[in-house]
Design brief:
mainly alpha, single chain, 68 residues
Length: 68
């Protein structure tokens, strides 16, 4: 899971201010599919990422992550 979380966190940190939550989630799915061959379980992995990483962010970044 760490390799998935690394990819998702990198995408989130670099795009949360410029992308809407739906667009960011779509981007995350695309990168999980492209880089890790995750197709059907992308939503599941993103939801686990949200739960695990929500405490690492504060303010607007936390709200953006919760909105994914």
């Amino acid at each position: 899971m760490d390799k998935y979380f690394f990819t998702l966190d990198l995408l989130f940190r670099s795009n949360w201010e410029v992308c809407k939550p739906g667009a960011l989630r779509s981007m995350m799915k695309k990168y999980l599919n492209r880089d890790h061959d995750v197709v059907g379980g992308a939503d599941y992995i993103i939801n686990i990422y949200k739960g695990d990483f929500l405490d690492r962010y504060q303010g607007d970044a936390r709200e953006a992550l919760a909105a994914l």
